[in-house]
Amino acid sequence: TQGFVPNVVFPTGIVPRGDSLWVYYGAADESCGVVELSLPEVLEACRPPAGG
User: 24, 25, 29, 45: which has the fewest C-beta neighbours closer than 10 Å?
Assistant: First the structure.
């Protein structure tokens, strides 16, 4: 998308809902949305690599 800051997503709020996170965001200063993420998957992605 185009905008003042193109190709950038700005997370603006996170709402925990059970095992999910609802992440509200703005995109390229011209639209906004919400995405539902799996909390266990987010936490797993934050772990350091094994042996690292």
Answer: 45
Q: Residue-wise over 15-36: b if at least 16 C-beta within 10 A, else e?
A: eeeeeebebeebbeeeeeeeee
pLDDT tens digits for 16-31? Answer: 999 999 999 998 878 8
The answer to whether 22 and 36 are in contact (CB under 8 A) is yes
- Sorted by where each begins, the domain ranges of the chain are 9-46
| C-alpha to C-alpha distance for 25 and 11, rounded to whole angstroms | 4
At CB < 8 A and 24+ separation, what contacts does 39-47 make?
none
Nearest Cα residue to 8 out of 24, 26, 21: 26
